[in-house]
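Notebook p. 47: complex prediction with zinc ion.
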Amino acid sequence: MEQFSNTETSLLDNHVDDHVDVEIQECLSSDPPKSFFMFAGAGSGKTRSLITYAGDDPKVIALKTALNVPFDEMERYATYVSDHSRFATHQGVKGLEYPRVMVILDDSEARGFLTDFENHIVSYQNLIEKADKQCKNTYDYLLSSDEAIIYNQDASIKTKINMREIKDVFTISVTIDNINDYAARAEKLKFLELKSKAICISLDDLMVYREFFDSPLVFLHFLQQRRQATQESKLALSDELDHLGMYIKHNMYCIQLQDYPDDAHIRFYGYREELDNYFCKLYHPQLCPPKPSLKIPDLFLKTINYLEKSDFEEKIQASNYLLDFSADARKQLCQSVEYALQRQPQVKHMISFGTAGSGKLDLRYTGFVEQPEVPAFTEEYKRQYTLSTLLWNDDPDRIMLDFVFDSNGHLVSFKYTQYTIADIKPTERESLWNMGKERANLRLNIYLKQHQQINPSDICPCGSGKKYGACCKKHLNK
Ligand SMILES: [Zn+2]
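Predicted complex, structure tokens below:
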């Protein structure tokens, strides 16, 4: 205690930290390194300067470091060691590979499993619910402050995560035992109370994902769909590979369920055969099994590949946007791009293309294709063009897609920009409206030359996606 009171006096001295940086230098270069943890610990200048009088006695250093820890960290540490922590088990938090997205994994191991049915349910309940609860706790913990601190097992700080930069958090509850069949159903079982929307899978399935997904962007899109499937009571899949199989085939596979009644339990068969074959054949490499792949067109694959390598900040959003396209919508975009690539060199100017609709699932985009032999629109013109379309159509939002090709027709870059009405400055509103009006007039005249007349209930030729009576008939013929 004597040593303590001496310490207290020293700690009140504001000049005691004056040479801390020099001391750190010395500490780093000495052999063996001295008590480096102190500098990485609480981070206060006082703690660092303790080296001066703590000398080489590790106990004194530890004690004094502890005394300098800010109260909130101490409090968290106390919770942690008393096992009341929200992160008391072995969660893995994987976030570094994916900017702005975090994946929380919690693993559990069953004990006394599969002896009788009653036991089975109880073990299973413990297994999944416990992992789920930990996922939920970790999730709450991470989101409880702007900066989440992750600790090592010895309670030292492993890393700090700036939660303001995280846009999405996935929780995955992983069971060590192979309870594949139950894991896939666990999310829906009534006797389990799952709180975290966690995706329940076995460790084996996690390994399947590691083997299957080459692209982190595609994997993140899959996780989004997979999480949605946990909330879809109609979906009754009995195996994790069914989820993956359905994803490969349909991408947004939960949409397949929208036409069925709410109380239905729908099973899907035949989705996993290709995957089963692939994973079985892996044990016999001489068969060279082809990996089942996402049924998406080349343009989409190349665009996602491009995004993967780019440092574009919104790349996850952009790839999710493209991967959400239905098969028809993909085909339409590919045809539009293909048409522009062929037509633009002939007419020697850029042409735009786009889609419209006001529904939640409708795609609203304006697209441009750049190629070296065709003079390009300016960025400002493309922006105005897209915003004038948004204004004229009364869109809630509109995406601008820019595809850039080289002279060999290879995609060299891609840009995704989301616009809303808030992006229109009050001073440009009128000119953008007139731009939209001019374009609508032009399209209407072309249509009338071919068709002579339009009914109010027809889809408006201006491309807004609305009925003529509620669109150009109202706005143009005044
Ligand atoms: Zn119209």
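Notes: Confidence is low (pLDDT under 50) at residues 1-13, 32-50, 86-97, 110-117. Residues 117-143 form the longest helix (27 residues).
Next step: compare against the earlier run before touching the bench.
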